[in-house]
Design a protein that fits this description.
The complex is a heterodimer.
Chain A lengths: L1 E8 L2 E8 L4 H8 L18 E4 L2 E4 L12 E3 L1 H4 L7 H9 L8 H14 L5 H7 L10 H15 L1
Parallel strand pairs in A: 1-5
Antiparallel strand pairs in A: 1-2, 3-4, 3-5
Helix pairs in contact in A: 3-6, 4-6
Chain B lengths: L6 H13 L4 E2 L33 E3 L5 E5 L8 H13 L6 E5 L16 H28 L6 E4 L2 E4 L2 E7 H5 L2 E2 L40 H5 L15 E5 L9 E5 L10 E5 L2 E6 L2 H10 L1 E4 L12 H7 L4 E4 L6 H6 L3 E9 L11 E7 L2 E6 L4 H12 L6 E5 L11 H15 L3 E4 L2 H6 L7 E9 L5 E11 L15 H5 L21 E9 L19 H18 L4 H8 L3 H14 L15 E12 L2 E12 L4 E12 L6 H20 L29 E7 L17 H13 L10 H8 L1
Parallel strand pairs in B: 1-8, 3-4, 9-19, 17-18, 21-22, 25-26
Antiparallel strand pairs in B: 2-3, 5-6, 6-7, 9-12, 10-13, 11-12, 14-22, 15-20, 16-17, 16-19, 20-21, 23-24, 24-25
Helix pairs in contact in B: 2-3, 9-10, 13-17
């Protein structure tokens, strides 16, 4: 049955009424009208729906609203803007990373949390941190280059 | 196809929305002064008919001096848009930043075939280049008239035409025609789709003079994606829209016999759409549509499970009746040569069904309003989807508009066209706009598959050790069991579920190479699909259709012959390959990789992890690629790491070196994934590969450490496809490297750890 939820997304608080079992992804996309994140699998297998929940990367496709509480949610749009980009966004543009780009929420949001806690990572550390995320177009080489570039920017 | 009744209305709205290009028909450009446009406010709405023989169908100069390029092929993320903008800018002599491109909207572009066979630049770009050259010619003539200076004494820079000997005499493109359409006829060849070509009188530039083509101009669509500012087709919403989901049977071929609508009555707004084999639901909220699809109680018919066991797949391919056989251009007398051979070398290879498994399952939105329908889709071929949606809706094509919108990844005939047709069925049934996105199990389990196949090769060797005959046969499911687009109801699940019989086509392919064996034969044979209606194993085009599997066999076999004759794999190829451009890529790759001449396998390694190198090469159309793989094989686990690739790539004239680099790299990584991991699993009832666990792909921890790329730029050679070619030699290069490392020949894909381990023991 529908319940009232208050969602703190990208610094703004929204009130919605929804099924408590509904995953956060549908609240973001359907109720709040945000175009990111994306639906990729609905199974926590690919990462296309990744958002930060209190700073941690979470797969919003399987996180029911009942678990969100008053957590602060940040989506890709909230990570940075063209005027104030996150280094990863800058690096993604500079490295011309994506092909279809449908996967980028997973890689950027996961890497953003990783780089916050890991300065100057090695290639192997970057790959391990991103393990399990899917990119069907095969842009993995460019992704790793961009994360390294962003890491360098973040000093 | 009939013409639109009111093209001006559609044109105006579309173009104003598209780019603020206030484009006005003015009759013949030289009749500008007598044009009635100033007297008639609505004249701004007119555009010459959107026909392939109109210059206005491809380019327009806007009032602000920008140029609009209208393109009937789609960019699946490989940077085609920027390449086309460069080609247009080059011919028109305007800065590339000033060229805007409008892609795949059936209201603004003609049918240039959509994304198809890596012909975006090769065919689509060729046309845009010809049209832009003609536009420049016309503009210069208009300037000559206006300035009173002969055309041959005018130069163009940054969209300004000026007298060569009097820079004060000048006029800009926007002053000449800005905001108005060209009204110039082109010499159209009468074809639509990929072969469409409609040049004007102008001759495109001499490639030696290029300043924009060839440059690594960045894509302008990446920043909007990275900042979450661009709408994908999954993001399009229209007022009154509902969300749809379709329901597929648990046994392929089953149809609903009883549907209990009451079982979802507790879900707000949930409705069932059931028509023959088609079953779907809609609801106001997306989550409710998902729940309704899950909770709806359905009784299905109980057909005999249609599929053989997975283990019997290749025997089925060997034993099924041949439906069609085709032979390529051969040489000599193969049968006689084998009779007289001193030695015959033979091998057989196997390749599984593979799934496009796009990053997100397909999504489409269909709105039917005021006697017209609009379909938003991530399809590769929006003009063909228009036809498919029109057929499903029973509407004339000219009442349907398809708007291509960036989709969740595409590598051929994936699930996008089926989704558009399914959304059309739902929208028609419920009388509201319907947004349908498939679920993951449908995106992986029910997309059209790359066909499974076997490949038999044999070579005849004479007493002196020369290869005197070569015989190659591919045999498998058709690459066009369902066609490469969803324009016909029998080629979509919706059409088949509504009772239209499948018209399964036949097609496979030949190896692309130039080995100069005296006696040579290549053939293919197709067999019937396993299920003749709404099959999750229907086969169609997937990136480099049948290329990777055919080349896996042919170039593995060439390697086997080289090894059997104690020849270095590169030396063997250089000895027998005839085409100079083929030889050039093989040499370039070998040189870049530091290839040491020796016979495979190595035989000098002990320990658990062994390393090897392997080469394979291919032609794909006019493009040539050689790939050298360097692999590590963990003998204990059977796990292969394709650690390094060296690619030499020749696609003629390079339009954008950065875009090409990415296209090659991504092809290599995706093809590595297909080689090492990808296999559609099924049981007797249906496909059981339904997500990323049951259809694993390459992980970032398994991606190569290094991909070195040599791009051979041939300015004078017409550009050919680069979107898929580098995929082709990858499987064989890996297989040959594994052989070099281990001495064991892997003849079945994928080279998953379990299979490799058992092959090694």
């Amino acid at each position: 049955m529908n319940k009232k939820f208050s969602l703190n997304v990208n610094g703004q608080v929204h009130s919605i009424e929804a099924d408590e079992d509904m995953p956060l992804l549908y609240a973001l996309r359907d109720d709040l009208g945000l175009n990111n994140p994306h639906f990729g699998c609905g199974l926590s297998q690919c990462g296309a729906c990744t958002v930060h929940v209190d700073g941690k990367p979470k797969r919003s496709c399987t996180m029911p609203l009942s678990e969100v509480g008053d957590s602060k949610i940040v989506t890709l749009a909230g990570l940075g803007t063209p005027e104030h980009p996150h280094p990863l966004q800058t690096a993604y543009v500079q490295e011309q990373v994506p092909q279809c780009a449908y996967c980028i929420n997973g890689w950027i949001m996961t890497a953003a949390a990783f780089l916050r806690d890991n300065k100057k990572p090695t290639d192997a550390q970057i790959r391990t941190a991103l393990r399990g995320l899917k990119c069907r177009c095969g842009t993995h080489m460019a992704i790793v280059r961009a994360v390294k570039r962003a890491a360098a920017m973040m000093g | 196809m009939t013409r639109m009744e009111k093209p001006q209305n559609f044109s105006r709205r579309t173009l104003l929305q598209a780019g603020g290009a206030l484009v006005v028909s003015v009759g013949a450009p030289l009749a500008l002064k007598t044009s009635a446009l100033a007297a008639d406010g609505t004249a701004a709405a007119t555009r010459p008919p959107l026909n392939p023989d109109q210059l206005s169908s491809y380019v327009a100069v806007n009032a602000d001096g920008t140029v609009s390029a209208f393109f009937g092929k789609m960019d699946m993320g490989q940077g085609l848009s920027v390449a086309i903008r460069q080609m247009v800018a080059e011919e028109l002599d305007v800065p590339v930043e000033r060229v805007k491109i409008f892609i795949g909207d059936t209201d603004t572009s003609v049918n240039q075939g959509g994304a198809s066979g890596s012909t975006g630049v090769q065919n689509g770009g060729k046309q845009m280049r010809a049209a832009s050259a003609e536009a420049r010619r016309v503009l210069v003539e208009m300037a000559a008239d206006k300035l009173g200076v002969p055309a041959d004494q005018l130069t163009v820079k940054d969209g300004v035409v000026s007298a060569a000997n009097d820079a004060g005499k000048k006029v800009s493109y926007s002053e000449l025609i800005g905001g108005q359409f060209f009204n110039v006829h082109l010499d159209w060849n009468g074809q639509i789709g990929n072969p469409l070509y409609a040049p004007g009188k102008a001759k495109p530039k001499d490639p030696k003079t290029y300043t924009i083509v060839g440059q690594p101009v960045p894509r302008d669509d990446i920043a909007p994606k990275v900042f979450a500012q661009e709408n994908f087709c999954t993001d399009i919403k229209v007022p009154g829209m509902v969300h749809g989901r379709v329901i597929r049977p648990a046994v392929a071929g089953a149809v609903p016999v009883k549907v209990d609508e009451a079982s979802i009555k507790q879900i707000p707004g949930a409705r069932v759409v059931w028509d023959k084999g088609f079953l779907g639901v809609v609801a106001d909220k997306e989550w409710d549509a998902i729940k309704a699809a899950k909770e709806l109680k359905v009784e299905w018919s109980q057909p005999t499970p249609p599929f053989p066991s997975q283990a019997a797949l290749y025997d089925h391919i060997r034993q099924a009746p041949t439906r069609k056989r085709e032979e390529g251009k051969g040489a000599g007398n193969v049968d006689d040569a084998f009779k007289n051979a001193a030695r015959v070398i033979e091998a057989e290879y196997e390749w599984p069904f593979q799934s496009h498994s796009s990053m997100g399952p397909a999504c489409s939105l269909v709105e039917i309003k005021d006697g017209r329908a609009t379909c938003w889709s991530g399809t590769q071929k929006s003009h063909f989807v228009r036809a498919g949606v029109a057929a499903i809706l029973g509407m004339p094509e000219d009442k349907v508009r398809t708007i291509w919108t960036t989709g969740p990844g595409s590598y051929g005939r994936n699930d996008a066209d089926d989704c558009a047709a399914d959304a059309a069925v739902l929208a028609k049934a419920v009388g509201r706009p319907v947004r349908l996105q498939y679920m993951r199990d449908q995106g992986t389990g029910w997309d059209p598959k790359a066909p499974a196949s076997i490949h038999k090769a044999r070579a005849a060797v004479d007493a002196a050790g020369n290869v005197v005959a070569y015989d190659f046969l591919s045999r498998g499911f058709s690459r066009v069991d369902v066609n490469t687009n969803g324009s016909k109801p029998w080629d979509t699940l919706a059409g088949q579920n509504l009772g239209v019989a499948l018209k399964s086509g036949d097609g496979f392919g030949f190896p692309g190479e130039s080995y100069g064996f005296t006696n040579k034969r290549a053939a293919w044979e197709t067999i019937a699909p396993l299920l003749d209606r709404a099959s999750p194993l229907r086969s169609a085009h997937m990136r480099d259709p049948v290329g990777p599997q055919t080349c896996f066999a042919s170039e593995s076999f060439i390697d086997e012959v080289a090894a059997a004759l104690n020849m270095d794999p590169v030396a063997f190829r250089l000895h027998y390959v005839r085409d100079p451009r083929d030889l050039a890529v093989i040499k370039a790759a070998a040189e870049k990789a530091g290839w040491q001449t020796r016979v495979s396998p190595r035989r000098d390694q002990r320990g658990n992890t062994v390393s090897g190198r392997g080469i394979a090469y291919a032609q794909r159309g006019a493009t040539r690629v050689a790939v050298i793989a360097e692999v590590d094989v963990d003998r204990g686990s059977g796990k292969i790491w394709a650690r390094k690739f060296t690619v030499a790539h020749d696609c003629g004239q390079i339009i954008n070196s950065d875009g090409l680099h990415h296209a090659i790299e991504n092809n290599v990584v995706q093809a590595t994934s297909r080689t090492l991991w990808e296999e559609v699993k099924f049981d007797s009832k249906t496909v059981t590969s339904v997500d990323w666990r049951t259809y694993p792909i390459l992980d970032v921890t398994e991606a190569p450490e290094q991909v070195d790329i040599v791009m051979i730029n041939r300015l004078e050679v017409a550009p050919s496809g680069a979107g898929e070619a580098a995929s082709r030699p990858v499987p064989a290069a890996i297989a040959n490297a594994v052989f070099d490392a281990t001495g064991v020949r892997i003849r079945r894909a994928p080279f998953a750890p379990g299979y490799v381990k058992s092959s090694l023991s």
